[in-house]
Amino acid sequence: MWGSNDPPARLQAIGMNESQSKPKPISRKVREAITSMVAGDTKNITAAAAKVGLSREHLSRELSRPHINQFMHEKVRRSLAVAATRAGATKIELLDSENAMVKDRASTFILGLAGIQPATQPSVSLNIEMRAGYVIDLSDDPPPIRTIPHD
Using CA atoms, how far apart are residues 50 and 59, in angstroms rounded to an integer? Predict the structure, then answer.
């Protein structure tokens, strides 16, 4: 959305419409609560609200407002972008692990990202005509009944 050349889409992404000249305001406490949750300092809305001095109900109501929800999603996206670079570096470091299973999983993951993957289905196919249970023949002319002796 940020790379869009469409002005209405870019304005909507930051909580504005064409008739507005600036984004809708977000209170300092709400921004701090969002930052606290995104950073992992607080694990839920109740803890974030208590940390910044808001009621849980008020913070919950604020987070459901479209422009605040958009702000929160942007914070999360930025945080995940940074974490993705760290995760990528970790996977690359794991290729040099002493543990063979760790090396295998890291290499399989990295190769998968590059589009190189093992076959998901086995290459050997067996056609076995085996049926279990009863077969009900509904044809007009059924074959004669066979009795199979058993011991």
Answer: 10
The span from the CA of 35 to the CA of 13, in Å, is 18
How is the chain split among helix, strand and coil, in percent rounded to 5?
50, 0, 50
- 109/116 Cα distance (integer angstroms): 9
Give me the count of residues in the chain. Answer: 151
In this prediction the pTM is 0.54
What is the structure's pLDDT at 51? 96
CATH of domain 7-113: 1.10.10
Q: How far apart are CA 41 and CA 50, in angstroms?
A: 12
